[in-house]
Amino acid sequence: MNILETKALYHDFSGLKVLFDVNLEVEEGERHAVIGPNGAGKTTLFNVITGTYRPSEGQVFFRGKEITGFAPHKLVRLGMGRSFQITSTFFRQTAFQNIRMGILSKRGIRFNMFRMLDKMDDVTKETDEVLKRINLDGERDIPASALSYGKSRSLEISMALATDPDLVMLDEPTAGMSVDETHTAVELIRKLTEGKTMVIIEHDMDVVFSLADRITVLHLGAILATGKPDEIRDNQAVKDAYLGELEV
User: Fold this and answer.
1) Residue 216 neighbours by CB under 8 Å, 6+ apart
2) Domain total in the chain
3) Which of 64, 69, 71, 82 is deepest in the core (most CB within 10 A)?
4) What is the value of pTM for the model shown?
5) Residue range(s) defining the domain that contains residue 90
């Protein structure tokens, strides 16, 4: 069963066409990677799916329900979480406060309730449990701006998952990380997305082939191929368009 589908999706910016007839299918429970050269339309596709952009043409479906053009906050309530290519934590807030925001969103607690937060023992307990799970309990009260780059990215990934989404969309979660940070992030993603559906944009092919159950290749705004990692690795058209430039 597909948890996410796009049908005949097109998008352009002032006449500049970016997506062409994209028909993406993501099965429930799978880890699905979207790869392709720079400018292939990967982040635009994510932005259309997650409500940042409305497509020029086509439809987006989540669990069989059309969600085309739904605002991002509505999609969160439906069970979709997202991280961004550029770190988007609240820099002045502590690691604890950042994770707590995701948990509050999951529980539907509005900002006018924030004055009561210190009395919400169950929220505090859940937040501390998340921090321990992602190995940031030692940085609980440190502002996000003071965290290392790798830990800041881990915090952002965890924020996307703190809302307990059924589908999580990760946009280049390991971008800019060292080899050691990347390894830590991959293990964190694997652990946090267990039992969930994940769609990930990623340039690091070691990350892609270690995490993905299936891979979709975008090229010039259109889907070039979709298949299991070995099928994509052996696809000559994909090699010519993208993988031939990389060591895989």
Assistant:
1) 24, 32, 33, 34, 35, 223, 225, 226
2) 1
3) 82
4) 0.84
5) 2-245
